[in-house]
């Protein structure tokens, strides 16, 4: 019986800690984008989400997100964002 309770306790703790990163850090990440060119368009995938200087929240569920910063007459910059586990949680 004690062995069963230990295993049950371990399983409960594991389930609790699986969602711990989302609880600690939330489902969204605040992102700030600055550029030397003010008013450059900031796009996430095919959607325009703002202009520089940009501050916004991006959903963390996406495995990889592509941000494109562009303005006519200037070189377009593409940034690949990837999700990484929080090392403080593990």
Number of strands: 6
Shape, principal axes of CA atoms: rod-shaped
Largest sheet: 4 strands, antiparallel
Order of helices and strands: HHEEEEEE
Helix-residue proportion: 25-40%
Q: Report mean pLDDT, rounded to a whole number.
A: 78
Uncertain stretches of 5 or more adjacent residues: none
| First-last Cα distance | 30 Å
Rounded to an integer in angstroms, the radius of gyration calculated over CA atoms is 20 Å
Secondary structure class reads: alpha+beta
Fraction of residues in β-strands: 35-45%
Query: What is the tally of helical segments?
Result: 2
Strand order of the largest sheet: 3-2-5-6
Structure description:
Strand 5 and strand 6 form a beta hairpin. The mean pLDDT is 78. The protein has 2 helices and 6 strands. The chain has helices at 2-18, 20-25; strands spanning 28-33, 41-44, 47-51, 54-59, 64-70, 77-82. It has a domain at 26-82. Helices cover 26% and strands 38% of the residues. The strands form 2 sheets. A 4-stranded antiparallel beta sheet has the order 3-2-5-6, with no helix packed on it. It has a two-stranded antiparallel sheet with strand order 1-4. By secondary structure, the chain is an alpha+beta fold. It starts with a helix and ends in an 8-residue tail after the last strand.
What are the key terms here?
four-stranded antiparallel sheet; 90 residues; 38% strand; alpha+beta; 2 helices; rod-shaped; 26% helix
Q: Quick recap of the structure?
A:
The chain is of the alpha+beta class.
Secondary-structure map:
Blueprint: H1 2-18, H2 20-25, E1 28-33, E2 41-44, E3 47-51, E4 54-59, E5 64-70, E6 77-82
Antiparallel strand pairs: 1-4, 2-3, 2-5, 5-6
